[in-house]
Specification:
- The protein has three helices and no strands.
- With 74 residues, the chain is mainly α.
- It has one domain (15-67).
- It is globular and about 45 Å long.
């Protein structure tokens, strides 16, 4: 993921990646992710989680698929 896709964001790249990972990996709702982050002291709205997942989610999925070997690979 290029750093240019994180330009003009209020939160650091690590927080954005964690939010998108939580949303997709554990099939949580947007409000669940918002609640989890608020318990950790990070004030993110569920709309921001939605926009990040729409903008960056597909790129993360592609990156993860490329990094993991296929099950039938030898």
């Amino acid at each position: 993921m290029s750093s240019s896709s994180y330009r003009r964001h209020r939160f650091p790249m690590a927080v954005i990646q964690q939010v998108v990972w939580l949303y997709f990996c554990f099939s949580l709702s947007l409000r669940d992710v918002e609640d989890m982050l608020s318990q950790r002291g990070i004030d993110v709205s569920y709309e921001k989680v939605r926009s990040w997942s729409l903008k960056l989610g597909l790129a993360y999925a592609r990156k993860l698929r490329r990094s993991h070997p296929r099950a039938d690979a030898r």
